[in-house]
Design goal:
Helices cover 50% and strands 11% of the residues. The protein has an 8-stranded mixed beta sheet with strand order 12-11-10-13-14-15-16-17, sandwiched between helices. Helix 7 (173-182) runs antiparallel to helix 12 (261-273), helix 16 runs antiparallel to helix 17 (385-393) and helix 22 packs across helix 26 (634-654). By secondary structure, the chain is α/β, with parallel strands linked by helices.
């Protein structure tokens, strides 16, 4: 047979080596061509009497990154078209049959009568890891960078090619559910301990070890196909089973508030599948997979958290006219928590870093932050002491600005004070080269005004990190009025080098992320002034899909910062641009009571030592009115918290602050945790339709205030029935290789 993705070589012992090496791709991914070609290979080997068994491996550094989700996205999107043309029953049948082809292929490998061994030479995720599970033996090459896992839950799906059923027959159900529901990627030592991998061998011995297992008489039957197989955790309806599934359901609802259909489906298919023979269990899994694939949550999450993120990560917004130039050395001004974090992620990814502060001792403290983070990784077995030494060797702490002279990029991360920033800008531009780019990490100060202190404004750009830098995946790049293409290209190249996701926005007060998340915090403040119980405000925030309630979030970003921003807004734009109730609340919290947030141990919450945080009891004293919790419509509170953020995002697009709808969605999820199951703030609107969203806003405007008044753009879209993704289709430029 002729295959483009695989090569086949059978040795003198009758063992076939199937090498997967997709042309033109950096990683192997599963698409329809791969399924067809591998199916043909399986049949060829199954019917060839000279073949004793097969080993499948990869010709790349990784084994497989999973399925091509654009294939699944197209399948799910086509359901509506087919339903309209042929009826819903036919559309359901089509999606079911198409989406289970991979599951049937893997089951054929498992039951073909000849042993298959997965020789895992690198990371295997999603459908790629499910392929290894369908093999009768799994051998991995020893590599600290290799990861295995089923991360589908993170994009609104679940393993649909047998993963839920095979994992739940290898692991006890509690461990299986945790593995599937968390979507974590495991290192090889952990995977072997869990029996998800059978052996770890030196890289040079990988193929030999795989073949030796076959030659030694390796079985061509999976354990669950052997008569007398017993589930590792016992039957579902047993004492042990009842200690797993009822609590698991309770934990699921506590953690997700039933917002994620895929998570619910995992519980369902594991619960049902463990009561059935494997073939029936796989059919149940396929039924649920087809159902979840058609869900609006999966469609939204795949688009935003896979397709759009992938495009942005590969340079969709990078100016095509600027040649790529690898960065080698950067400068970081300010060795505090933020600057230390920027230095760490830069050095971690191979960049040389000059870390500057007012004196050498303070700069050294910034470097110590990297030492602590790397030591934590060493203690968890995720890095070696040699890795730590290499990272620290790339960071040079100093107070001497002259050390910046040969940096490609300088990122300023000093105190959020205009005078302080202008001082370091002035000192920096006197020593850096004529082509070096200057980036300011500010969350509030306009980039165009800061650029006035820089001699070449075309080389000045905003690079807004989120705290903690090492954990937050988003970087907001802000274009000043005179920022040039080269500065944008370098900033995007930098963000790509440190493996984070960029969004590009235009200069405006609060930019995009700070401006939108501010509406969420404000809505929490206003609910408090209305008399809504504080605990209800926080719980409803999480029920709506946010990672924390608005009061807790304000504590994290600092209550006194919110107060400073509000006062600055009133001075700059006038009293009509602020809410007087919010002003009174923040003034009381900060000026009268000294409650600044987590940073001083007291905000909307108290932070006792060696104990969990708890809502400050004094909040009740700030409420002149106290509403009866039983009389409050929780659904209205949820809609308020999400709609106000979506409305502000729409205004940002209308005003040109955000020019790409993908960035509005991705930025809202990664930047401040906007309900991921919606796909982001703009997908939230598109998901219900502009007319329904306008009706929602008009209703809230009548009962809650004019801040919910829909903008002209939304009113126009409501009349025409347009969506944001149709009215503002993303420009899909060729990504940087």
């Amino acid at each position: 047979m002729i295959a483009t993705n695989f090569t086949l070589d059978t040795d003198s012992d009758g063992i076939a080596l199937v090498t997967w090496n997709a042309p033109g791709r950096t990683m192997n991914v599963i698409d329809m061509t791969v399924i067809e070609e591998l199916s043909a290979i399986v049949e060829e080997l199954a019917t060839d009497g000279a073949v004793k068994g097969a080993v499948i491996t990869s010709g790349k550094d990784t084994f497989c990154a999973g399925a091509d989700l654009t294939m699944l996205e197209t399948l799910g999107r086509g359901f509506a078209e087919l339903a309209a043309a042929q009826g819903e029953e036919a559309a359901n049948a089509h999606v079911f049959e198409e989406s289970r082809k991979l599951s049937l292929l893997y089951r054929r490998i498992e039951t073909c009568g000849k042993p298959w061994v997965a020789a895992i030479n690198g990371t295997a995720l999603g459908g790629g890891f499910e392929l290894t599970l369908a093999c009768h033996h799994r051998v991995a090459a020893d590599n600290s960078r290799t990861r295995i896992g089923q991360p589908e839950i993170k994009i609104g799906l679940f393993p649909g090619a047998g993963g839920t059923q095979r994992v739940a027959r290898i692991l006890p159900p509690a461990d299986a559910l945790q593995f599937l529901l968390k979507g974590d990627q495991l290192q090889l030592n952990r995977a072997k301990a869990m029996k998800l991998i059978d052996a770890v061998v030196p890289p040079g011995d990988l193929i030999k070890a795989a073949k030796d297992w076959i030659k030694a008489g390796g079985s061509a039957k999976a354990p669950w196909d052997v008569e007398g197989f017993k589930l590792p955790g016992g039957p579902v309806y047993s004492k042990a089973g009842m200690m797993v599934f009822p609590p698991a359901n309770a934990i699921y609802r506590r953690e997700t508030y039933d917002n994620y259909p895929a998570a619910r489906a995992i519980l369902q298919v594991v619960y049902e599948g463990l009561q059935l023979p494997i073939d029936q269990a796989l059919r149940v899994e396929s039924r649920w997979f087809a159902k979840i694939l058609r869900s609006p949550e999966a469609a939204a999450m795949i688009r935003s958290l896979f397709v759009s993120m992938q495009e942005l990560n590969k340079g969709a917004r990078r100016p095509a006219n600027v040649p790529a130039k690898p960065l080698t050395k950067i400068g970081v001004l300010g060795a505090g928590f933020m600057g230390g974090g920027i230095a760490y992620v830069s050095a971690l990814n191979g960049l040389e870093v000059v870390l500057i502060d007012r004196d050498p001792e303070t700069a050294e403290k910034g470097k110590a932050h990297s030492h602590k983070l790397m030591t934590d990784q060493v203690n968890r077995g995720r890095a070696t002491t040699a890795d730590r030494d290499a990272v620290l060797a790339r960071i040079k702490p100093t107070a001497d600005f002259v050390e910046l002279k040969d940096c490609d990029l300088v990122v300023e991360a000093v105190f959020e004070d205009r005078k302080v920033k202008e001082e370091v800008i002035s000192r920096t531009q006197n020593v850096i080269g004529e082509t070096a780019i200057f980036g300011s990490n500010t969350s509030t100060l306009p980039i165009s005004s800061l650029a006035a202190a820089f001699k070449d404004r075309a080389r000045f750009i905003g690079i807004h990190f989120f705290s903690p830098v090492e954990r937050m995946m988003l970087v907001e790049i802000i274009m000043g009025k005179e920022t040039g293409d080269t500065a944008l290209a370098v900033a995007l190249d930098f963000v790509r080098a440190i493996r984070k996701t960029p969004i590009v926005v235009n200069d405006a007060r609060g930019f995009y992320t700070s401006r939108v998340v501010g509406t969420y915090i404000r809505e929490g403040h206003l609910m408090l002034t209305e008399g809504v119980p504080p605990a209800m405000i926080e719980n409803v925030g999480r029920m709506a899909g946010m990672p924390v309630g608005p009061l807790a979030l304000n504590d994290e970003v600092a209550v006194d910062l919110a107060w400073k921003i509000l006062k600055a807004t009133e001075i700059d734009l006038g009293p009509q641009m602020i809410d007087l109730k919010q002003k009174a609340l923040l003034e009381d919290m900060v000026d009268k009571r000294g409650r600044y947030g987590r940073k001083n141990g007291k905000g909307f919450y108290d932070y006792p030592q060696n104990a969990p945080k708890r809502l400050w009891r004094g909040l009740l004293d700030l409420q002149s009115t106290k509403l009866d919790a039983d009389a409050i419509d929780i659904a209205v509170l949820e809609r308020r918290l999400l709609a106000i953020q979506a409305l502000e995002s729409a205004r940002c697009i209308e005003e040109g602050v955000v020019s790409d709808v993908r960035e509005a969605d991705v930025g809202s999820i990664l930047g401040f945790g906007f309900a991921p199951f919606t796909g982001g703030t703009i997908s939230y609107i598109d998901g219900m339709g502009a007319k329904a969203f306008v009706d929602l806003c008009n209703g809230l405007a009548k009962t809650c205030g004019e801040r919910f008044t829909p903008s002209k753009l939304l009113l126009d879209m409501a009349k025409t029935g347009e969506t944001f993704y149709r009215r503002f289709p993303p420009q899909r430029r060729k990504a940087v290789a």
